[in-house]
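User: Can you help me understand a structure? I only have the sequence.
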Amino acid sequence: MTFPLHRPRRLRRSEALRELVRETRLSTSGLIYPMFACPGNKVRTEVSSMPGIYQQSPDQIVEECREVADLGIPAVLLFGLPEHKDETGSEAWSPRGAVQLSIEAIRKAKLNLLVITDVCLCEYTSHGHCGVVKDGEVLNDPSLALLADAALSHVRAGADIVAPSDMMDGRVAAIRAKLDDNKFTDIAILAYAAKYCSAFYGPFREAAQSAPQFGDRRSYQMDPANAREALREVALDLEEGADIIIVKPALPYLDVIQRVRERFDVPVAAYNVSAEYSMVKAAALKGWIDEQRIVLEILTGIQRAGASIILTYHAKDVARWLKKC
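Assistant: Let's start by predicting it. Here is the structure, written out as tokens:
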């Protein structure tokens, strides 16, 4: 029998060899940990559909942020829950909002963390949509000023990066202009450039209490069937001043991540969203899967597709697992 000259198995026969030739290397340096800030003090309420994830008041946010920083995770992403909701989501830009107070507490604690804030109105509005509503329609242009006000309030509180997730046309330009006019030219924008109208957001809507009270978000979030459109959305956000872009969700859109990475020479992030997390957690609690291996394989796949930054609720577990490797 004549054996082939090339034997790929030669480089797979030990862990040391596999590690030496590994093409994609997952590390904590590209992870962002999402968190949910709520009003009050000493509040820590677990999200029923997301085991291990909590709605927390600013004092509790700081304590978990200490843990996040100690694990070597470089950044957190803050979502806010308001004390009161109204038609315009006015608490989104209140200096006494849960996000703003959480930022101030993190800064006071002098933690070695980048603080990123989600900029949207859905958590704050009584109707649960991401913009101003009139006669049952989500209005684009009137929403821009409110989103810009929210972003400015986060930056004044001490945010390093703002992340508009609303998918209104032109919101990156409106936020960039607002920040620049107020001398915050160095603050980066991480734009949800390709955010799809996805069924994978269900658990998040419980965590953020942000489910729309009527209709859905198909008129502003992207159609899951479209990939080429994502490239246009990314190009528009970059033209308007975005510094980093996000594809959301991650797993069903690995092809989109790859297309974006190949087309644009900017940092590309992907959001490993709530249902992706919850499905893994549910199967792990049933004993049906090896949670550690599954999570590391998922995140490696997202990175292999082209995302150098991954927003994931698994971040703390991943940091612990990687330390043991």
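Now, to help you interpret it: The first strand starts at residue 31 and ends at 37. The chain has a mean pLDDT of 95. Let me know which part you'd like to focus on.
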